[in-house]
Amino acid sequence: MDWINAIVQGTLLGGLYALFAAGLSLIFGVMRLVNIAHGDLIVLAAYLGLTVTAALSMNPFVALILVVPLMAGFGYVLQRGVLNWTLGDDILPPLLVTFGLSVIIQNALLEGYSADPQKLNAGAIEVASANIGGLAVGYLPLVMFLTAVLVVAVLQWIFYATALGRAFRAVSDNQDIAQLMGLNRRHVFGLAMALSLAVTAIAGIFLGVRTSFDPATGPARLIFGFEAVIIGGLGNLWGTLAGGVILGVAQSIGAQINPGWQILSGHIAFLIILAVRPRGLFPRMDG
Amino acid sequence: MPEPVLDIRKLDAHYRDFQALYGVNITVEAGEVVAIIGANGAGKTTLMRSISGLIRNRAEQITYRGQQIGALRADQIAGLGIALVPEGRQLFQSLSVEENLIIGGRTGRKGAWSLQRVYDLFPVLQERRNVPSTSLSGGQQQMVAIGRALMANPDLVMFDEISLGLAPVIIRQIYESLPTIVGEGMSAMIVEQDITKALSVSSRVYCLQEGRVSLEGRTADVSREQISAAYFGT
């Protein structure tokens, strides 16, 4: 029973990792940008949630109404003002600039909020659970997982059933020819980053409700996000969800064996999959 | 004389690090089909990329319907009604056939061309509308590329090497469709290495050689000898 419990809890935890990863996957898919600051942007969203909940004394989930558009707006400005200038044939400039951005965000958060761990308080939902077939399934992890499924489904729908998604795919395929269709790639990239940070906002709020966070929490979230994306296969959003679940299950099984092995076993699962399937489990056909 | 649709004056353009065009003057009148011929490296593709805005130049070097467009971005120029059928088709591989056509029409310009009209011109595309564009044959892909440009209802459409790599029967089929396409007042610029094909559908011709216009004239007036001299620089 403990093992089944570990798998169920790991699966639900995987939803959070998929939320970490979805924005990363989206940005890489549209503009081949590896956003090193992604983890720190998640933490930034959590702090933004902290400020909003404190100022307006509202539930962190209600605060999403403000945090999501604020992060999306920030994403658009960041892309148009900074990141667009780094994109080109050379893959190094975006890496360096987002790495710098990561350092800047961490230090700005340290300056503004101190190094004390913080937490978002969502009230009773944090400890409430349902008894399903003898397993205690927490409402929060369940909501987290269902949110991840919903986010991936919505992103998938945007990508494959809307004009915006068509523009994302066209620009991703061939930037020059997309320009000839009247698409301004700088604007399209701005919209993609806005969408990415909107997802990041949701991830940040769940992160803050689930565990305590501090300004240095970001890089580890980036690693989990990366691992979920790579396990699932680049450019495949449902694969990213599967990757998050695999990572979560591996971690919780590791923790079941020995509590100290939680993080390690996630990394080991990642390395095994990378060794056996270098392109991930569900790579897109054209990779 | 009415104002030309496209007026290129003293265009110096660069391809990557070297200069590919030197003081090129070209005009295209309304409803006219102009052929641009020349050997590999003569500057034909640089000319197309300059007109469509993929290479940006000085504003006054390219005038389109009275507006200086030399310095505009490609997406701005697309909105003004210039479309390019690029060399090598260059379809969006993650879009279906129909999505490739729809995105061609996203500038929202009004005109005779619609999805249905493109399907009428190339019925095979309607049958295969939902398949990925990569699963089509080369000739069918070229039809999509042409349809995608027409969906923008352009005033000027440029065809860059549309016969390259296609079977002769397909090339004939595509060239037979050209009069339908340009018969409605649309101006066209045809870039080809296959000179006979280009001359057969055009009323005027420019020959480029090493970045300069080495010959221009009415297609009916230029002789084979003149063309080969202008083409090879003999």
In short:
The complex is a heterodimer of chains A (287) and B (234). With 287 residues, chain A is mostly helical.
Fold and architecture overview:
The complex is a heterodimer of chains A (287) and B (234). Chain A has 287 residues and is an all-alpha fold. Chain A has one domain: ABC transporter involved in vitamin B12 uptake, BtuC, CATH 1.10.3470. Helix content of chain A is 73%, strand content 3%. Chain A has eleven helices and two strands, in the order H-H-H-H-E-E-H-H-H-H-H-H-H. Chain A has helices spanning 2-31, 38-56, 60-81, 92-113, 139-161, 163-173, 175-180, 185-210, 218-232, 237-257, 262-276; strands at 129-132, 135-138. A two-stranded antiparallel ribbon of chain A has the order 1-2. In chain A, helix 9 (218-232) packs across helix 10 (237-257) and helix 10 (237-257) crosses helix 11 (262-276). The longest helix of chain A has 30 residues, at 2-31. The N and C termini of chain A lie far apart (40 Å). Chain B is of the alpha/beta class. Chain B has one domain (6-232): 3-Layer(aba) Sandwich (Rossmann fold). Chain B is 34% helix and 26% strand. Chain B has helices spanning 44-52, 74-80, 97-104, 115-121, 123-127, 138-150, 168-182, 195-201, 224-232, and strands at residues 6-15, 18-28, 33-38, 62-64, 67-68, 82-85, 156-160, 187-192, 204-209, 212-218. A six-stranded mixed sheet of chain B has the order 6-7-8-3-9-10, sandwiched between helices. A four-stranded antiparallel sheet of chain B has the order 2-1-4-5, with helices on one face. The longest helix of chain B is centred in the C-terminal third of the chain and has 15 residues, at 168-182. The termini of chain B are far apart. The mean pLDDT of chain B is 92. Chains A and B meet through helix 6 and helix 7 of A and helix 2 and helix 3 of B.
What's the overall geometry of chain A?
globular
Strand fraction of chain B equals 25-35%
Main pleated sheet of chain A = 2 strands, antiparallel
| Helix fraction of chain B by DSSP (H/I, runs of at least 4) | 25-40%
CATH topology of chain B: Rossmann fold
Topology of chain B as a string of helices (H) and strands (E): EEEHEEHEHHHHEHEHEEH
Largest sheet of chain B: 6 strands, mixed
Note the total helix count of chain B.
9
Number of helices of chain A: 11
Determine the fraction of residues in helical runs of chain A and give it as a percent range.
over 70%
- Euclidean distance between termini CA atoms of chain B: 35 Å
- CATH classification class of chain A: Mainly Alpha
Number of domains of chain A: 1
Radius of gyration of chain A: 19 Å
What's the total number of strands of chain B?
10
Q: Assign the CATH architecture of chain A.
A: Orthogonal Bundle
